[in-house]
Amino acid sequence: MPKLCIHESYGAPADVLRVVDGPAEQPGPGEVVIRMEAAAMHIADLRTITGADTFRFPLPRTPGFEGIGHVVRVGQGVTTPRVGDRVFPALASGTFREEVRCRAEACMPAPEGDAVQLSLLTVNGPTAQVLLDDFADFSPGDWLIQSCGRYLIRLARRRGVRTVNVVRRESMIADLQELGGDVVILDGPELSSRVAAATGGAPIKLGIDAVGGAATQRIAECLAPDTNLVSYGSMSAEPCHLDFYLMFRQGITLHGLSFARQFRRRTTQQVREMYARLAALMASGELVTPIAGVYPLDRVVEACAHAARTGSEREGKVVIGFS
Description:
The protein is an alpha/beta fold. Helices cover 31% and strands 24% of the residues. The chain is built from 12 helices and 15 strands. Helix 8 links the parallel strand 11 and strand 12. The longest helix has 16 residues. It is globular, with a radius of gyration of 20 Å. The chain starts with a strand and ends with a strand.
């Protein structure tokens, strides 16, 4: 009997999650059943489990926004994917379970390659891609500044866009330089003057912030006039701080990013082509991310505790692995 994680009420993972045996999933018309290989765990998963504001879903449910696996059963009318095909399940289909049932048309083809790395594709990869595509008109040699997105470094480099990468720990500098970051610099006072010195005063055409709080303001101070600043995370758990007069005088515009919203501006074919490009880069090893730990489903509570750590206590992504 396939195992699944059940989330029945909001609270600490140790109090509200349990792993149980369930019946084999049976696909309805237009559906497939996927035997999971790996499922990524994100901060958003932890927030849905605790019931943070704007992260509440009807309960009971199975957590898990993304992952990878093979189709084992198909419903009436499904011609693709076929049994045996490797796929990414539909986003937010409850991937912390051995068998996932979802709409066939919402699955994306997945390549061969490391299941643990590929399990992170459907959220992190397109987030980096739309940040690069949708908020600035880049030419080769242009600069952006960001708070430490590893995929973004590699995708920008492929386009000839140079990156300033702002980090919160000195231990990260050598790693991001090796990855291809043109400038890697420690966050802190006088960031804008240090960035200007490191880039030769080049105009910076896009700011990307995943930290929030005062870090948002420091990145904004580095930007060229009439530039977008995009917030796509809040590692500090603080609202973005951005001075009105900086926006007023410099024309800085702050955007909040939802890659799902950016996808609505694209056709289904364009989205599928994006995923195919990213999957190929990940399968080839060009897009990689550190893995902090891989846990079996029976240890999902431990996995949540690991994923909740920050900084040097985690140093990578947490993944649920299925044998």
